[in-house]
Automatic annotation (TrEMBL):
Gene3D superfamilies registered for this protein in UniProt: 3.40.50.2300, Winged helix-like DNA-binding domain superfamily/Winged helix DNA-binding domain
Domain Response regulatory: 6-119
Gene Ontology CC entries for this record: cytosol; protein-DNA complex
GO molecular function, one term: transcription cis-regulatory region binding
Signal is among the record's keywords: no
Highest taxon, organism lineage: Bacteria
Pfam families xref list: Trans_reg_C (PF00486)
Biological source species: Rhizobium loti (Mesorhizobium loti)
Classification via InterPro entries: CheY-like_superfamily, OmpR/PhoB-type_DNA-bd, Sig_transdc_resp-reg_C-effctor, Sig_transdc_resp-reg_receiver, WalR-like, WH-like_DNA-bd_sf
Span of domain OmpR/PhoB-type: 127-222
DNA-binding region: 127-222
CDD domains documented for this protein: trans_reg_C (cd00383)
Alphabetical keyword list: DNA-binding, Phosphoprotein, Two-component regulatory system
Protein name: DNA-binding response OmpR family regulator
């Protein structure tokens, strides 16, 4: 199993840090936090940090100093949070090598996506994204991210079922195909339970792409933007 990516949150406001850590940990990352500059120094002096998010509660000069000492070749990628009026600080951070600078107030889900993008560029990405009509699915973390901003967890059986459909787009899968390749999660499942599993999966994904073919089975018809 691949090692978990490590993200350090330095002087990030508590409400934001709590929500961001929740997003990242559910996606399989290890989150470590430092509230004070001296804690950050100790944390970043160790090895293995992949991405550092520096909050705007830290003095901008201190944030740039951390970037100067711990960023660069072989170091972690830095994302600095700045206030909208701090254009000069934003430019200075980018010139010093910050991977990204975001303005507060910010959208935590967007910030988590920016962290994920940096990890992917470092070869540490853990996402496997499928875009449907009303939701995006990260298969590796088994998360459904709805356009409304809400998230749901897929069960292992639902992930197996979705992977089966993704592997066979526009092909009718019989009940036997599904039972063989994506068995139910309990030993009491019988043939008719397939219908219930499909209904629950459709509902959780908020999708019409999985069609019932009467008397034959089920078919996955990818949406136009699907690139799998």
């Amino acid at each position: 199993m691949a090692a978990r990516s490590i993200i350090a949150l330095v002087s990030v406001a508590e409400v934001v840090a709590t929500e961001l850590a929740d997003h990242l940990e559910r996606r399989g990352h290890d989150v470590r936090q430092a509230r004070q500059p001296w804690e950050a120094e100790s944390l970043l002096s160790g090895k293995g940090i992949d991405v550092v998010v520096v909050g705007d509660s830290l003095n901008q000069a201190e944030g740039r100093d951390l970037l100067r000492r711990h960023g660069g070749e072989g170091g972690p990628d830095f994302i600095l949070i700045c206030r909208p009026a701090d254009l000069v600080d934003k430019v200075l951070a980018l010139e010093l090598g910050a991977a990204d600078v975001v303005e507060s107030p910010l959208n935590v889900r967007e910030l988590a996506a920016r962290v994920g993008g940096l990890l992917s560029r470092r070869g540490r990405g853990t996402q496997e994204l499928i875009v449907l009509e009303n939701a995006t699915v990260d298969l590796r973390s088994a998360m459904v991210m709805h356009r409304s901003g809400t998230e749901e967890q897929l069960s292992p059986g639902q992930v197996a079922l979705l992977r089966l459909f993704l592997a066979s787009p526009r092909k009718v899968l019989t009940r036997d195909d599904i039972i063989a390749a994506a068995p139910a999660e309990n030993a009491d499942a019988f043939d008719r339970s397939i219908d219930s599993r499909i209904v629950r999966l459709r509902r959780k994904l908020d999708t019409e792409t999985i069609t019932t073919i009467r008397g034959a089975g089920y078919r996955f018809d990818p949406p136009q933007q699907f690139a799998g």
